[in-house]
Design brief:
The chain has eight helices and five strands. With about 210 residues, it is of the alpha/beta class. It has one domain: Rossmann fold, CATH 3.40.50.10490. The protein is globular, with a radius of gyration of 18 Å.
Length: about 210
Amino acid sequence: MSDIKHNLESYAADAAARLMQTDFAKLAEIGSLLLKAKAEGRTIFLMGNGGSAATASHVTNDLVKGCRVEDTPGFRALCLSDSNALVTCLANDFCYEEIYSILLQTYAKPGDIVLAFSGSGNSPNIIHALNTAKGIGMLAIGLGGRDGGRMKLLCDHILIAPTDSMEMLEDMHLIYFHDLVCAMRPALAKLAGVDYQECGCQAGICSM
């Protein structure tokens, strides 16, 4: 029991220290790009694999629902991995590497945003999709880790979590967007033309 407790505390302390090494200026820049996309009526497409697919799905929820201000809609955001039937159909009838590319070709328009989550930055389906996005004229944003992988060269903007640990970088990717949701609310209220009401994010009691 004492060894487990020590390991838990060590992980938490390491993760907290590394989190504070984040390039928060880049995170703020990403937030500004998202707000600009919302003002222009753009769509944000999110993608990832495994745990990163779960993060993409969770962040989609945050952008659509968590970014609502009063009765004003949140972002137009779609997670490309959320339909099991569609993803497995495309993987089976074409190939797994092309699943996200095909979906972007079907749904995306120039000026839309693709938001990729990848720990390695080398997943073939992410790389194919980013190349497709470039051809469409989309803005590519990456959330990565380690050295950024091949994804780093294909993104217009990328924030790399300062850790080599897959667990920690996935933790950080989710924290980044919870942080952004709270940080963007005053701007979202201004965009919607409503008064901003402090939501209590800092106190951990936010219910918006």
